Amino acid sequence: MKKWSSAWAGLALSYGSIVIVIVLLICSFFYIYFSRSYNEELRNKNQLILENTARTIEGTVLKRVQQLYVDLSLDKSADIRLFADQADRNGLNQVLDLQELLKAKVAANTDIVQGIHLYYPARNIMLSSLYGLRYNADQSEGSVYYADWLQEMRTSKHNSLWTPARQIPKDIFSTQTSENTSGLFTYAHSYPFRSTGETSDVIIAIDVKEDAVNTIVENMMPSRYQHTVIVNAAGHAVSRLQEQSSGKADIYAASLGKVLDLGHAKGSFDETIGDAPYVVSYQTLPSTGWTIYSATPSSYYYEQSILIQKLILGICLAALCIGLILSAVLVRANYSPIKRLVGRIKDLSVGTPNEATNEFRMIDNAFLHLKDKVNNLEETMIANSPAVRHKAVLNLLQGNPEQRPWKEERAALGIARLYADYCCMLMNTGAPVEKGPAATPEAIARLMHGLECLSLQDSRLIVEELPDKRLAVILCTDAASEALLDKFSQLLLAETRQQLQPDIQLSTGCWVKDLREIHLSFNEAQTLMKYAYFRPELAILKDHSLLEREHSLEEIPQHLLARFRDKLQSRQLGEATNTIEQVIEHMRAGQSPADYCHFILSNMVFIYSDVAKNVRYKHTLQFGHPDLYHEYTNMHDILAYRRWLTGSITTFMEETENRNSDRAISTIELAKQYIEDNLSEDLSLEAVGSKVFLSPKYLSKLFKEEVGITYTDYVTSRRMEQAKLLIENNNMTIDRVASSVGYGTTAYFIKRFKEMYGCTPGSYVRSLSSTAISEARS
């Protein structure tokens, strides 16, 4: 048995008391007040019924149809813009998927919806859940049954319309006259949502069953159903309720005109219609602007007042009984969720709650505990607000704002209102290695706070650090101008140089009207910042003509790179540095894209690195990186690059010259030994140079200087001497001798042998034989 202090007992007592008090009040009210005001009450009730009827039509039919349009527009399971483009790029499967989607929407709303049609004005194509895919939709068979909304929407300056009801056959393609028709309204709306009918990509039309509205009116106003009509703003009937009356629709024309002339959304007045007094009530449907008109004979109210006097006592008694029964039902129904909630609280509680505790007190304690947790959560969110703001800014700059309400997005950015114009500026705060350490996070944080404090009238700044250590500054203003942008640029540079370093550069993007388009301005600022490397003398990069270089096809003359390599290999310092100057001047004054220029600069570094590796030269590291390319990436601008590359090449040439004078002789000896050991192999300058780590040209030069003859002559002489020894000491054919000393063809060997010794190998063999015979005879 439940305790009297429990929630169940409290609910039972409360509901029982309420029922008794209400019944007593109703009884007293009826006896005291009804005789004087019942007629007026019935009129108000009649108006209320009409309002409820309008609200029911609005909620269960009209708004539901509008919601169906919204659901269809947002549905991602099929592409609603299937035929919106001019080119046919859609397959049959996509058409079937979209039609199946329409049929599914109709099936889910079959109580009010007859069919859904998608009309594509640009292609004059209609895809319907009822009629399938129809080309030349406005001229095809059966088009007369949907021509009203189709023609009107194609030229409409509005985005939606409701058509009056009309009778449409079940089969619009049949030529047989049939009585099997349906009364339909049509709701047509443009897509995208903000477009008008004449500018829309797609027109979505939903056929609504007239019976859905008529049934609501008949069920909610059964006694006045035959005297009810729905008209549009022009006074024309949009529903054929009046046709179901006794053919007296014309007698209401005068009072209908009076309703339309009043221009009120709802109301009630007395009117004489056909020599009989009537009470006319009307109510406007907000979604369509239609008006529900109802004319009720005045006698209806007086007839009811006589009967009601006799039934007051019985109604009060019945109400008391029913109220007590309903109270018991409501106590049970309302106590059930309380019981479940209390049970859930007990399950989640660490300790066991006191069973004697009132359920409401237990729920109150649980909510207090929940409040504490919510407060802790709010404190955590406040602590994480910088990270939330950082993510929001990055999403805007990347062009993919989070899919959450825009008010929340602005709140995360700290923007209290919308501005007319926005512009993004970009500052590079990362100091180059050669100019000192980069700014600390604390210094960046102080700088960001100081920059956001800079403001002018109707303007504010949003400053955020990017992952690459640059600062993105979003300028929000109501008075966009180049003068304002220049003023803010100077203020930003002055503040940044004061706190970080004096050579900060800033780039500015274009103005945009919507903060969600700020990524366009940011992309321009990023592109301009690329050219800060090549124009370090410019503090502010705002010349948008630099953007044209991104699409330029101009190239650096390739012969400059070839000459740079040749001058390095030949150790011509002046020519090499002059080539560097020409390349850099071409980049600064020309129209080559920034990325291409960096590609050329890195190629020059790679050329220099290859030349240094060929002579096994290890350069002195300036920044602690293992190779030249990493040193190049630390150059702040192209002038620093020029100083670094020129200085490094100068050191390289000076050190290699000193080293070569000591190593020349030993290198020549190594080359000679290799030639001696490999006379039958490839002894080209390239092959031998790679073995002694010298370039072919430099090896040839060393041979000329150290040996006194050319490299080719030296190799030929050694091969011929070896061939002569082989001929003298071995019984070998001329072909084998030629192959043994590295000649691929015997004829060429014989030619070179004759040039060297004045006779052919065969003559030399014969001369040796003659000499041997002579010596034997002696």
UniProtKB/TrEMBL annotation:
The chain crosses the membrane at residues 12-34, 311-331. The keyword Transcription applies. Coiled coil: none annotated. It comes from Paenibacillus silvae. Keywords: DNA-binding, Membrane, Transcription, Transcription regulation, Transmembrane, Transmembrane helix. It comes from the Bacteria. This is HTH araC/xylS-type domain-containing protein. Residues 669-767 form the HTH araC/xylS-type domain. InterPro entries: Homeodomain-like_sf, HTH_AraC, HTH_AraC-typ_CS. PANTHER family: ARAC-FAMILY TRANSCRIPTIONAL REGULATOR, REGULATORY PROTEIN POCR.
